[in-house]
Design goal:
single chain
Length: 179
């Protein structure tokens, strides 16, 4: 049985390695908690606005913060599963013998792009911290959320590197996980 084949009774979301399962649980769990928080903030803001004529102070800034955190906290899980949005126009005609090579090239490109994004986020966070930049209404520092985005992006970059190494060692498909 190959590394990606499942026995009939095996749970799909626990079919990957313990590392992959941990990445999905932590990354997905964090995203889920943040999404729940976004829902609570939205309910409070909308109810306050239309029922009590008193919207949540700084509600739009809180929503922006949480949305950025949700997107970046999900990045490690998405990268491990290679679940990015993609166009599969050529998948049907791609010979199976070059699939592994294609995945190596795709992961190399993704590694370079996300590594660059991580580096730029770090520079931005440092600049925001040094300048003391704050949210307009809430007066909270902006740097911590950008550092969080940089951390998640950095973890995602490391995971892409691990995916690349899996392909170099002979893997032919993404690590199974939460699909």
């Amino acid at each position: 049985m190959s590394e990606t084949e499942l026995t009939p009774n095996e749970d799909l979301w626990r079919s990957g390695s313990p590392f992959t399962t941990a990445v999905h649980l932590v990354s997905g769990g964090t995203s889920g908690v943040l999404l729940f928080g976004l829902m609570v903030v939205t309910i409070i803001d909308v109810a306050g606005r239309y029922v009590f004529n008193a919207p949540l102070p700084g509600g739009s800034e809180i929503v922006q913060l949480i949305m950025a955190a949700i997107i970046y906290s999900a990045l490690p899980s998405v990268n491990r599963q290679e679940g990015h949005i993609s166009v599969d126009l050529l998948d049907a005609i791609t010979p199976k013998r070059i699939l592994r090579t294609r995945q190596i090239v795709v992961n190399l490109i993704a590694l370079g792009v996300l590594g660059t994004i991580t580096w730029c986020l770090w520079l931005l966070a440092d600049s925001l911290r040094q300048d003391g930049e704050t949210w307009e209404y809430l007066k909270w520092q902006r740097a911590p959320i950008v550092y969080f985005m940089c951390l998640c992006s950095g973890i995602g970059t490391i995971i892409i590197l691990l995916n690349l190494l899996r392909y170099i060692r002979g893997a032919r498909r993404p690590e199974p996980g939460f699909i």
